[in-house]
Every structure is written in structure tokens, then in C-alpha cells.
Amino acid sequence: MNLYARARDWSEIQERMLVPLYEAVYERLEVGPATRLLGLSCGSGLALLMAASRGAAVTGVDASPERLALARERLLPDAARGTRARRATRLVDGSPADAADPKTPPYTVVTVFEPIGCLAGDAEGLGELLASALPLAGRGAAVVLAGWGPPERCATSSVLRVATKLADPLRSAGSWRPARRDDLEEVAQRAGLKPDGSGRVACPFGYADLDSAVRGLLSTGLFDAATAATDRKQVDKELTEALHPHRRPDGTVWMPNVFRYLIARVR
């Protein structure tokens, strides 16, 4: 799949599924004009846009140039037209270290809204990301981690099992696995963070039709290992079949899910 087309599918189809999660976290942390927020793996910027609309100064970091280009369209439209951009918004292509700026105060909130605990090895990658980001945050800053809820409360889990079925069992890295109860807590502990509350949020996945559902789910990256082990046509076929039980009479696709978030503090 073309990388830009995939990023566009994420932006236009899939990203909005996590809006209830963003809202719940921002409400709980009272994100507003006094907030300096650093969004790690910020994607195409919807969560950042919501924080900025509450008055927060936001910085987004992502390793995907394609998703970051879409974030710029959302958050810095004036810059795209060659006029002055909003000073309170920054987007950084690369690592958190590239967002360091000695002229600005420490961040008060760090978010990682990309759900972890569903790909083999993703917790280790997040640990490295946090290690480079936490020096930019002030003492007591909130760090938000997100992940999938219990498989029995996530209808999409049955669909995601297609990824495990098709992936090469000898290459487990990057293949989907069910989320574990303490995934988020383990990451926080290894990063030296102090847990300070958690919550669960209903985030149903709703799509206009089967094609949109397939494109949206593929944009998450959760099927990359399966595609590499087989081919895109095979993944599309089996994914479509797995989605059929969730198709409504009007052709839409609906899957109730629950996501977890953990709030931890920088010591």
C-alpha cells in the first residue's frame, strides 16, 4: 500500500475511533491554557488538535513523514500557505530529542495515545521513546499511556486474530497478540514513572462499509506482519470474512471496544 494513502486512511477513517479516549484523558487532567503537551507518535494530529482547541501549547513527534504531513495540514494550515504559523504549535519529524528547546519551559503532559500491548515487542520500543522524552518533562508531569482493554470486551479482538493467524510464527516481532492486564503498568515501572490513576473508555469502531473497515484497520499497522508473511490480497480476503459478523443490515460495520489509559508521574 502506498504510504501516503495509508496515512490518509488513518487520518480519515481510523483515528477518530479514539476520540473518546482523548476526551476522557484531557478532561481528567484538565488540559487547558496552562498545559504544555508533548504528543509522542502523534500520527496525523487529531489528539493534538483537540488539546490545542482547549488552549494547550502542543508539540507533536512522529517518525512517519506521511502522517506528520497530514498533521501539518490540520494544525499549521497557515504555514502550508507560507504565512506565519501558530507559535504554540510545533511538529517534529524524528525522535523526542529533536523536540528539545532550551528556550521553552518543560512539558507538563506527555501523551502516547497509540495503543500498546497488542504487538509483540511494542512495549520495548515505547520504553526507548519514553527514555528520550522524559528529560523534556518537568517533575510531576503527567505521562499518559494507552492500550487495548480486555479481549473479551473488545469485539475487534476477534478480527485482529487474523493478523496472528497469517503472520509468520517464526517472526513474532510485530505480530498481534491479545493485550495483557499489566502492559501499561510494566512500561511505566521500567521507565521509572509513578502510577497516578487509570481508567477505561468505550471506543467503538464504526465504519460506513466493509471496504472502509478493511482500509481503516490496515492503516493501524497491526496487519503488517501478516501482509509480509502472505500478501495483501490474502489479508484483505480473510479480514473481510472476519468482519462479516459485525456487519449491520444497512451495510455498516460496528464493533464495541474498551480501551485503557494509565496516568503516571515523572519523579
How would you describe the overall organization of this protein?
The protein is globular and about 55 Å long. By secondary structure, the protein is of the alpha/beta class. The protein has helices at 3-14, 19-29, 46-53, 65-75, 77-80, 122-133, 156-166, 183-190, 210-218, 224-229, 232-243; strands at residues 36-40, 57-62, 89-93, 107-116, 137-148, 194-202, 205-207, 253-255, 258-265. Helix 6 runs parallel beside helix 8. It has a seven-stranded mixed β-sheet, with helices on both faces. Strands 7-8 form a two-stranded antiparallel ribbon. It is built from eleven helices and nine strands. The protein has a single domain (3-153, 176-206, 256-265), classed as Rossmann fold. Mean pLDDT is 91; it is low at 80-85. Residues 39-77 form the Methyltransferase type domain. One of its GO terms (molecular function) is S-adenosylmethionine-dependent methyltransferase activity. Pfam families: Methyltransf_11. One of its GO terms (biological process) is methylation.
Key phrases:
single chain; 267 residues; alpha/beta; Rossmann fold; seven-stranded mixed sheet; two-stranded antiparallel sheet; Methyltransf_11; Methyltransferase type 11
